[in-house]
Each structure stands twice: as C-alpha cells, then as structure tokens.
Design a protein that fits this description.
This protein has 365 residues and is α+β, with helices and mostly antiparallel strands. The protein contains 14 helices and 13 strands. One of its GO terms (cellular component) is cytosol.
C-alpha cells in the first residue's frame, strides 16, 4: 500500500511551518482505495507569497479543523503504507513536525517521485511537478492545491510503476516491509531484556556473537546501542537476530566478565584495544573476594591462590562458608589469568568490594 500525499503550508522558518491543507490518496498500485482531503487551521498567519501561490488565506481556515482534530485520521489512512510525495522529504518532515508538537512520534517509510523520476525518466528539462507532468502529458487540475497536486502525483507514480521494468520500486517497498518486521523483532528483543546489571551478547542469524556490551541496565544499554546512528551501530542493528545476557550483580564481575569475554570471543564489531597487563602482585597471596550476587541470597566469589586468579562462582556462602574444597568444585576456571589479575587489581585500587576473606591454603576458611 502507498499513501500519496501533498501538503500546503503557511511558509515561514524551517520547522515552524503549519499545515493549511492536506490530501492523501491511499493507492494499492492499481487504484485509489481510500482518500482524505481537508483544509487545516494552522493557528498562525500564512505568509503573503503563499497566499498568492495557493489562494488559501486565513479567512478560509477560520472554521477548518486544527491538526490535532485530523491527526487520528491521518494515522489510520497511512498505517502500513509507504509515503509517496513529490519532494517527499518536505511533506514527511512537515507531518513529523506536526505530530511531534502533539508528543507523538510519527514514523513511516517514504519514497520521493522526484528521485524516482530522475532515475526512470532521465534528461527532463525540469522535475518540478507541474513542468514534469506537462512534458509527460499528465493532466493537472488545481495546481498548488493539495488535492490537485496529490492526484497528479498518483498519476505520475502509476507511470513510474509501469516504467519500473527492474521492479526497483517494488523491491524497495519490500525492503521497507522487511525493515518494519525487523523493527518489530528488535522491539520484541528489547522487551525480553532485564533492567539489571550485566553483560549482553548480540548474535547474528547464525548464532555467532558479533558484539558484546555491558552496563548497569542491560535493556537500556542495548536500546542506546540500537539508537546510535554511526555505521558500526547500524550494522549491528541490521544483523542482530538474538540478544543473550548474563546478569552480574556487581560492577566487579561485570567488568571482569566483559573483558574476559572480549579476549576469548573477539566479536567482529567490538573495538578491542590491547591492555597493558599489571606486573604487580596482590597484597596477599591467598584470599577470596566476596561480593553480592544476582539475587539476595547469593554471593559472587573470586578465588585468588598463589597470587593468581583461579576462578569465580555464584553460590550461597551460608552453606559453604567453611568448605573451601566444596567452593573450588563450583568455580568457573579463568584461563587468561594475567588479564583477570589486571582487571581485579585495577578495580581494587579504585573501588571497595563487599568482603575480602584471607585464609591459609592448608586450612579451611
């Protein structure tokens, strides 16, 4: 479905214009199946040159509906449609501006008949709507009025569809639909993520981890990643299939897990800088770091022996506090001990932890 739109405005400063008239023809590629045409009271003065161009003046709009009164109808008629307009960036911007004033984020995909005409009907003297239609024999009535210009755009777009032998317009429309489905998929992914601290993993359709991130609020951090407009973030967004995560419960484990996973997995879209590893020892050779876990009755433990980081585990210490041999069986072994030591050492220098328990290797805790 296509929503072919033309808008007349008051003129004025960029993003301060108001709509004076709007016409929308809902087009299925063959025929117009619905339409909406209305004058709109912009609640501001129309610039004199615009009055002369369109013939619309403030007296004509005194009893016309204000935008908020037609906003719901516009949303309904354009729902599921690609916006088509001659200079679509202008009409779409005006609509988004009006809805933003109402506190609503109006989002649709759009195609511009100026750009399509330049590709499919090259070497024209002018691509303005009036001159282009005249050269192509397309009749235009009520020029510079929304209904007349929108209907002329309908006829022009129909011609462009006929000329589109490679079906580029249709392919682009299908890409929009696929993109819309991808947006819905991303929204579903975000809804499933917790607002908890931890590390998250972006997977592509093959299940491969392509990016690792971390933060105090996993859902917020993933949302912020998908909202970024740099090339790397956009590639991650287009390739994401699944997001998995591991809650951490503490900043120390978030940091430790994040850097160990980067070193082990080396995801394609992470910028991994080589860290300078510490050569300093801990203050004690043998000890446990005890931090809060992911739930109230759980603890994180990190075991240090002979000044090396052995491993970590999440457990309830009330059951194993005096059983070092049992705790060792629960540990997840850390392979890159130098990196782990650097992360923990730097953290201890700048932060306090829940508890550090010293012990003698031959004794129980």
């Amino acid at each position: 479905m296509y929503a072919i739109v033309d808008i007349e405005t008051t003129g004025g400063k960029f993003n301060e214009e108001g709509i004076t008239e709007i016409a929308i023809y809902k087009y299925d590629g063959h025929t117009v199946v619905d339409q909406f045409i209305s004058l709109v009271n912009p609640e501001k003065e129309i610039q004199e040159f615009v009055v002369k161009l369109t013939g619309i003046n403030n007296n004509m709009l005194r009893n016309a509906p204000k935008f908020h009164e037609v906003a719901k109808r516009i949303i309904e008629i354009t729902d599921g449609c690609v916006i088509i307009a001659h200079n679509a960036s202008f009409d779409y911007r005006i609509l988004r501006t009006e809805y933003s004033r109402l506190g609503y984020d109006y989002v649709r995909d759009s195609l511009c008949t100026v750009q399509l005409s330049k590709k499919l009907i090259p070497d024209q003297d002018s691509y303005s709507l009036g001159k282009l239609c005249r050269s192509l024999g397309i009749p235009v009535t009520d020029r510079h009025r929304a209904s007349g210009d929108a209907m002329a755009t309908v006829k022009l777009f129909k011609l462009l569809l006929d000329k589109d032998n490679d079906k580029k317009i249709l392919q682009r429309t299908i890409q929009f639909v696929d993109n819309r489905n991808h947006k819905l998929k991303i929204n579903g992914i975000l809804e499933e993520l917790p607002e908890k601290e931890g590390v998250f993993y972006i997977h592509n359709e093959n299940g491969n981890v392509i990016f690792i991130g971390r933060g105090k609020n996993i859902r917020l951090e993933v949302t912020k990643l998908f909202l970024k407009d740099n090339k790397r973030a956009q590639k991650i967004k287009t390739k994401v299939d699944t997001v998995t995560y591991q809650e951490s419960g503490s900043q120390l484990f978030t940091r430790l897990k994040y850097y160990l996973e980067l070193d082990n997995i080396k995801p394609k879209y992470n910028l991994i800088r080589k860290r300078k590893l510490t050569e300093l020892d801990f203050n004690h050779d043998h000890f446990l770091i005890v931090e809060k876990g992911r739930i109230p009755e759980e603890n994180l433990i990190i075991l240090i022996e002979k000044n090396d980081v052995i491993g970590y585990a999440f457990t309830n210490l009330s059951y194993q506090r005096n059983k070092l041999d049992v705790l060792k069986k629960l540990l997840t072994t850390i392979e890159n001990k130098s990196l782990a030591k650097t992360i923990i050492k730097n953290y201890l220098l700048n932060n306090s932890v829940g508890q550090i328990v010293r012990y003698e290797l031959e004794n129980n805790l």
